Amino acid sequence: MSVLFYRYGRPKYEKLGETTFLKNEMIELKLITRHEYLPLHYSGDAYSVACRSNQTTNFKEQKSLFIEEGWNTVPSLAMSCLVGDSIKCDHQKLSEEAKKNFYLFGNSTIVSITEFGVNVSFTGCQVFTSWNIALLINELKIYESPEFKQCQEYKTKEIKQGIQDTGNMNCFYLNFIKNKIIFSNVHASDKGVISFSMTSKAFKNGLVFHVESIDFGKTWQTKILKKDF
Predict the structure, then answer these.
(1) Beta carbons of 89 and 96 less than 8 angstroms apart
(2) Got the DSSP string for the chain?
(3) What is the pLDDT of residues 117-140, one digit of tens each?
(4) Residues 94, 100, 105, 111: is their CA dihedral positive or negative?
(5) Contact at 8 Å (CB) between 33 and 53?
(6) What is the pLDDT of residues 72-125, one digit of tens each?
(7) How far is residue 147's CA from residue 220's CA, in Å, rounded to a whole number?
(8) Cα separation, 202 vs 176, whole angstroms
(9) Among 198, 143, 204, 199, residue whose Cα is nearest residue 175
(10) At a CB cut-off of 8 Å and minimum separation 6, what does 117 contact?
(11) Structure confidence at residue 6 (pLDDT)
(12) Which long-range contacts (CB under 8 A, 24 or more apart) does 55-58 make?
């Protein structure tokens, strides 16, 4: 171990920049970019989205992410320099992209759109609750992608070999690599209400869903807005 440490050194982190991209009187959102050197694992640029409000004052500093005390990390969409980009992250350009997937409502509600779902905080970024497309796995009829089929074949082969399925690899999400999920009509309020529409070319029959929660994300209701046969 000492030989490896001598040869490759310890992890290093370098802050590249930060940009505030969304704020109101109560909440501020910013994107921070960094370069990571993790010996024998990863070397490249990455980013984090952070949020602060009067309800995040007790959050501790996250040194390796360059997030100061009083800020909390926010679930966010994976953008181009998250993994293995040889070009340094441009925090200003990334912030412009990130802004398309964040919404502020009222004094304490923030919504973050990711690849497979929606994250919402009604507490000024203190706590987030999530809705994920996997909640509809039994209701959806999907055009299965080649990546999904290959994943399923791999898992079936492992099961036949007696390898237990740990659940770490969810093939379902691979259906949306090319046919991405599109979220629209996002609305929310400090009263614990959130609603949005979502669809994907992966859905058979051109389905468009309306998703809603009226109890701070504890339960979710889904109905079909459009169904083409």
Answers:
(1) no
(2) -HHHHHHH---EEEEEEEEEEEE-SS-EEEEEEEEEEETTTEEEEEEEEEEE-TT-TTPPPBGGGTB-TT-EE------TTSSS-SSPP-HHHHHHHHHTTEEEETTTEEEEE-SSEEEEESSTTSS-EEEEGGGGTTT--B---HHHHHHHHHHHHHHHTT----S---GGGGGGSSS--EEEEEEEETTTEEEEEEE-TTBGGG-EEEEEESSTTSS-EEEEEE---
(3) 999 999 999 999 999 999 998 888
(4) negative
(5) no
(6) 999 998 887 644 445 567 888 889 989 999 999 999 999 999 999 999 999 999
(7) 29
(8) 7
(9) 143
(10) 130, 131, 132, 133
(11) 45
(12) 55/108, 55/123, 55/124, 55/125, 55/126, 56/124, 56/125, 56/126
**Residue 119 structure tokens:** 């994250």
Q: Which residue has the tokens 């070397």?
A: 43
Amino acid in the structure at residue 8: Y
What token pair was written down for 202?
A: 């992966």
Its pTM stands at 0.85
Q: For residue 134, give every residue at least 6 positions away whose Cβ sits within 8 Å of its Cβ, in sequence order, or none.
A: 116, 170, 172, 173
